[in-house]
Amino acid sequence: MERAMPRFEVVMMATAEIAHYADPTRRSWERYCRRHSYDFLLFDRKILADMHINWSRLEMIRRRQRASRAEWIVLVDADTFVADEEFTLESLVAPYGDKEVLFAPDAARRFGIWLPLDLKGLVVCRTRRPPNGGFVVVRNSEFGRYFFDRWMSLARGPLRHMADRHPRTQGILWKGLYRQHRDRVAVMHGEVVRCGTNRLLDRISLDQAGAFVLHDKRLTLPGAPALAERGLVQVTR
Ligand SMILES: [Mn+2]
């Protein structure tokens, strides 16, 4: 019997230089995908030689949009890992109805209030929860393909001047895509929690209760302990 097509395909880019934190996070995603019968793919090198590696992550998704038969493609940063393995991707997308692109928020919920991580995001997107490019769920649909194609063509064309300036892919998303397509784009709530951007504030105020995924900047910092050694104990429930 032919294997049923998975509804979800999770894709990560991790080059050898970041293996010290990407090996454990990749294992976390592999274990999670095996458990729920999702596909998992790792790209281990840069694809676009002429642009910052963040653009290769986008190109990776564009290629999967043409090759994959999954219903949804999930782009995960190498500094994300699964904090709640029971939680399914089906239940992640369900609350967002007919939205076709779902982003993690570029914001932290501190003392119960959403605060953007970057004021530029607040100003350009006019919301306290602008989208974050580190975790994206995209329906493998005509609109999903259009969205990523447009993202890339803005970076190569009219918004070229922003393509290699911080926050790169995210800056172009904010400027040229988010508000233009709000009807089909959603920014999620507390499912994916960005942490490690402010050590002190995180300790006293970050609300990560019920998080499915942690997007942990600390993993990428020099001298950070590996994920496996720290365990997942920082998730409070
Ligand atoms: Mn990241």
Q: What labels describe this entry?
A:
237 residues, alpha/beta, Spore Coat Polysaccharide Biosynthesis Protein SpsA, Chain A, six-stranded mixed β-sheet, globular, disordered C terminus, binds manganese (II) ion
Write the layout of secondary structure elements.
Blueprint: E1 8-13, H1 19-36, E2 39-43, H2 53-67, E3 72-76, E4 80-82, H3 89-93, E5 101-105, E6 107-110, E7 113-116, H4 119-125, E8 131-139, H5 142-156, H6 169-178, E9 185-187, E10 192-195, H7 199-205, E11 213-216, H8 227-230
Parallel strand pairs: 1-2, 1-3, 5-9, 10-11
Antiparallel strand pairs: 3-8, 4-11, 5-8, 6-7
Helix pairs in contact: 2-5, 5-6
Bound molecules: manganese (II) ion (MN).
Manganese (II) ion binds next to loops.
